Amino acid sequence: MKRKQILFTLLLIAGLCLVGAALVLQKHGVPDKTGGMLMGLGSGMFTASAATLLTLRQERKNPAAARQNEISLKDERNIAMRNRAKALAGDVLQWAVLAAAWVAIGLGASLWIVLLAVGVFVAKSLLELYLLLQYQKTM
Amino acid sequence: MKNRLEELRKAHGLRQEELADALEVSRQTIGSLENGRYNPSILLAFKIARYFGLTIEDIFIYEEDQT
């Protein structure tokens, strides 16, 4: 718990530093793209760390609720439902990406957009195959 | 797969929350097990059997024609 708190406090500070750096660097002529990337990363780190720190604080105040959260997180039915939902969402998204590529062709979009969408589809298929082979070895 | 979980829980005078707490699962899992919507892993089945001092076969009834 203590280690988690230290880690997320450090991440929160790092997030703030990145946001600060983005603001300072933009004033000194650094391109908007770089500033935007720093700002995105920093604000993401800050928000995620702040949310985790608040949760840890709540759990410290209410150990019974903390235990319930932990049980809920490790509950095998919850894990099975989460995994099934993730798998189905991944499948739907994969075909949606392919549909987007097809629509992009119809709309006469740049070739790189079509190739990017098809690349994502193929990459997901390959990753799925790789993981399947890994699981066959270990399960 | 049928089971006698609800019958055993009630015979022990337990609420779903209490059994869930003892088995370290959510109350919803106990509810789903009791009404047959969810079949437990072998680990949870052992945990349940040990909790009631019975064997898995005493609690869970496998039906041959089930897919």
Evaluate the radius of gyration of chain A. 21 Å
- What is the name of the CATH superfamily of chain B? lambda repressor-like DNA-binding domains
Under the CATH scheme, the architecture of chain B is Orthogonal Bundle
Largest sheet of chain A: none
Count every helix of chain A, treating DSSP H or I runs of 4 or more residues as helices. 5
Number of helices of chain B: 5
**How many beta-strand runs of chain B?**
2
Q: How many domains of chain A?
A: 2
Order of helices and strands of chain B: EHHHHHE
Strand content of chain A: under 5%
The CATH class of chain B is identified as Mainly Alpha
Overall mean pLDDT score of chain B?
Answer: 94
Reading the helices and strands of chain A in chain order gives: HHHHH
* Sheet with the most strands, sense and barrel status of chain B: 2 strands, antiparallel
**Overall morphology of chain A:** flat
What does the model show?
The complex is a heterodimer of chains A (139) and B (67). With 139 residues, chain A is mainly α. Chain A has 2 domains: 2-74; 76-138. Chain A is 91% helix and 0% strand. Chain A contains 5 helices and no strands. Chain A has helices at residues 2-27, 32-61, 63-74, 76-106, 111-138. In chain A, helix 4 packs antiparallel against helix 5 (111-138). Chain A is flat, with a radius of gyration of 21 Å. Chain A starts with a helix and ends with a helix. With 67 residues, chain B is mainly alpha-helical. Chain B has a single domain (2-61), classed as Orthogonal Bundle (434 Repressor (Amino-terminal Domain)), CATH 1.10.260.40. Chain B is 57% helix and 6% strand. Chain B is built from 5 helices and 2 strands; from the N terminus they run βαααααβ. Chain B has a two-stranded antiparallel ribbon. In chain B, helix 2 packs across helix 3. The model of chain B has no long low-confidence stretch (mean pLDDT 94). The interface between A and B is small, with 7 and 13 residues.
